Amino acid sequence: xxxxxxxxxxxxxxxxxxxxxxxxxxxxxxxxxxxxxxxxxxxxxxxxxxxxxxxxxxxxxxxxxxxxxxxxxxxxxxxxxxxxxxxxxxxxxxxxxxxxxxxxxxxxxxxxxxxxxxxxxxxxxxxxxxxxxxxxxxxxxxxxxxxxxxxxxxxxxxxxxxxxxxxxxxxxxxxxxxxxxxxxxxxxxxxxxxxxxxxxxxxxxxxxxxxxxxxxxx
Length: 218
Hints:
Elements: E1 2-7, E2 10-17, E3 20-27, E4 34-39, H1 49-57, E5 63-69, H2 71-74, H3 83-98, E6 104-109, H4 111-123, E7 127-131, H5 146-150, E8 156-161, E9 178-182, H6 199-216
Parallel strand pairs: 4-5, 4-6, 6-7, 7-8, 8-9
Antiparallel strand pairs: 1-2, 2-3, 3-5
């Protein structure tokens, strides 16, 4: 069961899943050829700077953007549930994402990127966009999650901050994915004021990279 509320340029849809009620904020494109679905991490929501920027920029390039709030977030909880519950929520949301009949890029930031990687092949995703992939917990490189990324099984783009404590670009293994570095960026792609790249430039680097990559997907 879904419920849709439309406002200028966007539509909000609630979706019932086995993990609870999820919410999708749609940013439509006039001549959409792809849907990019992106969810948030374990410590934030869809107001993250990268998710907002993608929703603002990509529709003009033929990519509809769906910013997805997992059920735990919609319910107002502070802590994300176990990975299997996140995956269940994503599976439940997927039919609504696929309903327009377009190829769907499964994406997310941090924990959301892990969900996208774990479920991509099963759900038939066209590709995966991993924003700030948490390669390991901060300070614990031995607890690698590289297997999730390497097992995505579809074209994958990783966008990673140069100073991300969850995994710097040089820590990533070789594999079947592309990686774009945001210089000086932390896990949320914030850059320090002393950096020789501004915050706006850092965000533009992300959106430019995703525009180019989605263009290569057809």
